[in-house]
Amino acid sequence: MARRDTGTRPAPDPEGPQALADERAHHERCRAALAAMAAGAREHVVTAADVSASGADAEVLGRALRTKARDLGELPPGPLFFGRLDFAAAPGDEGSGDERSGAGPVAGRDADAAPHAGQSYHIGRTRITEEPTAPPLVVDWRAPVSRAFYQAGPHDPRGVAVRRRFGWAPDSTGAPQDLTGLEDEYLGRSGTGAGPGGTESGTELGPGTASGTGTGTGSGTGTDVGVAGGFLAAEIRRPRTGPMRDIAATIQPEQDDLVRSPLGTSLCVQGAPGTGKTAVGLHRAAYLLYTHPRRISRSGLLVLGPNRTFLRYIAEVLPALGEGGVGQLTVEDLVARHPVTGHDPEATALVKHDARMARVLRRALYARVRPEAVDGAGLTVADGSYRWRVPAGELTAIVADVLAEELPYDTGRERVRARVAARVRELAERRSGPRGDGWLRRTARARPMAAFLDAVWPRTSPEEVLAGLLSGPQERERAADGVLGPAERAALGRARPFTARSARWSAADLVLLDELAGLLELPAGHGHIVVDEAQDLSPMQCRAIGRRAPHGSLTVLGDLAQGTTPWAARSWPEQLAHLGRPDARTVALTTGFRVPAQVTALANRLLARLDVPVPPGRSLREDGSLTVRRVPDVVAATVAAVRAARNGTERLGAPAGPAGPDIPAGPDAPAGALGSVGVIAADADVPRLRAALTAAGLAPADPAGPAAPGAPVTLLPATLAKGLEYDHVIAVEPAAIEEAEPRGAHRLYVVLTRAVTRLEILHTRPLPFG
Ligand SMILES: Nc1ncnc2c1ncn2[C@@H]1O[C@H](COP(=O)(O)OP(=O)(O)OP(=O)(O)O)[C@@H](O)[C@H]1O
User: Fold this and answer.
1) Is the CB–ligand 1 distance for residue 270 below 6 Å?
2) Binding residue numbers
């Protein structure tokens, strides 16, 4: 593990200022090249229509070019590279583990496929080149060549002589803007990785930074990232001011392993709060799109999150990585055949989300297939002066055979039709010579055939089957007998009968309708699905996701300790089986990048009471603070706490230091460096807190509103906190949060782990944790 203690050793490198000037010049060159690339892409869009052979070609080409032009145009205005690798004159076998090196280089990106000895590569969020045949000015962080940036260490330099990271000072909005520093690690001095390897380096500071000393300790390579120092520390301490950011500059080795897992591998990441699960999932999505552009298109990739607020929070990560246009949905969106207009009591919802419902629904659907309805006289089809008759026994056998094939219901119906028609043709040909395909098609559509099918294997819809099941006691008894207990069967039933047309569907009904739709016909598949907060999914929701990637893979992200739904998972093997991926590799992440150590210690105390088999988290951050205050009036105390935070009497973030990929924030930070404040309370307490804050002139943003991700103060109900983070969290009355729902202790665990820098707990009632 490379260790650096530059905190006590100023950068000694006499070439520093020149190196910085050279890098600035390179950055200027990159900016000009990127502008030319964007202009070129736009021009290609215009000319594509003229040069294409057909309208269809023009459309496809135009779409591809438009996407490229848009992505280039949409790249955020920040730094165009964040790292550099200088390979030693005799590189080792770096990059050989990447699946793409086996598959051969992708056209136009040959230079990025494997490092060349003695060559330097700048690494950034997108590839930049002055012309297609020239070596790139910047290689994409996902290219095989870039892998060493994340994985090389003193004991495994991967041919890297020097790894350089860049520091960028922020502009007035807090976005990194000016190249102000660089930090070199000498990895490959011995050339073999033997010996002490990774040696010290200096942080070369440019003008405008606070001092001439380096930052922090340790740069975090190897799986033991330890206490973060240098630019990683600066990055994770950077105040949160808006939507989630990408972490391309500081992905850690164990995260990188997950990000670059092969497309065919389904992964499950169990991670304590703030360990980067969401970040890993999104970067893996970007990596797969880059690495397998032909096998997985943007429309073939899907990201699922728990709610709209969360999706808005993560919405900018993929576009910032040059991958706009990826579908980001909630599971509710996925199954939204109808608006939700009904509501289920909890006991009913529990039954509907239970895995056993899959069997009940299958039975309810296939109860419609009735071999016993075959007419004893068989099926007779007229053919000119002939009458062809298939005997009842043969028809029954055909139906039984097709049933045994377990095809989707609609396919089964067509298979029966095709088999019976083929049998009729056999009879006809035996008597009076060959029959063509047109004849066969007509026979398959003949009226007696339709009547036979309607009696034996009728056409139906998910709505019809579910309405029948929920409102017909007999149908329910038949389908659920031996599967659900009497109380569960009763909970499933609706008092008043209804039809598919008059139905008011509940959220759980939509999941059941989706299951039925999947039994009737296979849904369109995705090449890869990233599922966040997967611990909260019910077995039936898991099935809805799994069947949408029949040949694809999944990245399943979650934390059993954060499960808050009544059906939340308690074991990953079970959840993965419901997702149809029992063999997925499960990996635990425990190093937290968000929550400070004191807060993590508090959360771990609560975790011990949650009875879930997950390892406790540990924090990478020794900074940050935790305050627990018993107050006479939580509403008044909340107003005072928010006011103090906004007045800047409590500064947030890291101590002032040289710019890493960071905004310096701390006692000397500029006012603009104040981070976000999140007030989190039991849902029922939110209205009065909102009223009080608004009356005090501190109107908070509504987390569901459009301004939420960038707002200075957000007030959010505990049930919306999942996946989000704020610099300063004010958690109001934990006892009320815990008692609001059956899994309230898990909810409280989520709430207590949202703070990046400071957690302030305000309470009048006794605290639910020891
Ligand atoms: N390698 C890294 N470098 C810098 N920041 C990181 C890194 N990994 C994670 N982070 C940051 O840590 C924070 C937490 O990450 P993320 O939200 O992905 O965690 P999570 O495991 O999904 O958390 P939770 O379970 O609480 O939702 C984010 O701000 C993320 O950008």
Assistant:
1) no
2) 271-278
Cβ neighbours of residue 175 under 8 Å, at least 6 residues apart?
76, 77, 78
Beta pairing partners, 760: 627, 730
Residue to mutate (ligand 1; options 231, 277, 530, 652; most atoms within 8 A of CB): 277
Is 250's C-beta closer than 6 angstroms to any atom of ligand 1? yes
Burial 54-72 (b: 16+ CB within 10 A, else e): eeeeeeebbeebebbbbbb
**How much is the pLDDT for 424?**
96
Burial (CB < 10 A; 0-12, 13-18, 19+), residue 522, is middle
Distance CA(231)–CA(662), nearest Å, equals 8
Per-domain residue ranges of the chain: 16-220, 371-456, 597-763
The CA-atom distances, in angstroms, between 728 and each of 327, 489, 548, 674, 748 are: 31, 48, 39, 10, 16
Alpha carbons 682 and 691: distance in angstroms, whole number: 15
Whose CA is closest to 421, among 399, 442, 406, 443?
443
pLDDT recorded at residue 275:
94
- Based on its alpha-carbon atoms, the radius of gyration of the chain, rounded to whole angstroms, reads 31
Contact yes or no for 590/749 (Cβ under 8 A): no
pLDDT of 235 reads 75
- In a 3-state reduction of DSSP, which class is residue 154? coil
Binding site membership of 320 for ligand 1 (Cβ less than 6 Å):
no
For a mutational test of ligand 1's pocket, the pick from 165, 223, 236, i.e. the residue with the most ligand atoms closer than 8 A to its C-beta, is 236
User: In angstroms, rounded to a whole number, what is the distance separating the alpha carbons of residues 161 and 189?
Assistant: 6
Beta-carbon contacts of 131 under 8 Å, excluding residues fewer than 6 positions away, are none
For residues 620 and 590, the answer to whether their CB atoms sit within 8 Å is: no
Element (H, E) at 283: helix 277-291
Does the pTM surpass 0.90? The reply is no
Contacts of 63 (CB under 8 A, 6+ apart): none
277 CB near ligand 1 (under 6 Å) = yes
On whether ipTM exceeds 0.95, the answer is yes
Q: Are the C-beta atoms of 631 and 637 separated by less than 8 Å?
A: yes
Q: How far is it, in rounded angstroms, from Cα 137 to Cα 134?
A: 9
pLDDT digits (tens, 9 = 90+) for 671-727: 344 678 999 999 999 999 999 999 999 999 887 766 566 678 999 999 999 999 999
**In DSSP terms, which residues pair with 182 in a beta bridge?**
166, 204
Residue 290 alpha carbon to ligand 1 centre in Å:
22
Cα separation of 36 and 572, whole Å?
Answer: 49
pLDDT in tens, 446-505: 999 999 999 999 999 999 999 999 999 999 999 999 999 999 999 999 878 788 888 999
Q: Ligand 1 pocket test: which of 225, 244, 278, 307 has the largest number of ligand atoms within 8 Å of its C-beta?
A: 278
- The CATH number of the structural domain formed by 597-763 is 3.40.50.300
Find all residues with CB under 8 Å of 96, minimum gap 6, and list them.
none
Query: What is the overall mean pLDDT for the chain?
Result: 83
Give the residue numbers of the binding site for ATP. Answer: 271-278
**Strands of 677-681's sheet in order across:** 625-630, 755-763, 726-732, 677-681, 713-717
How many angstroms separate the alpha carbon of residue 594 from the centre of ligand 1?
Answer: 6
Question: What is the total residue count of the chain?
Answer: 770
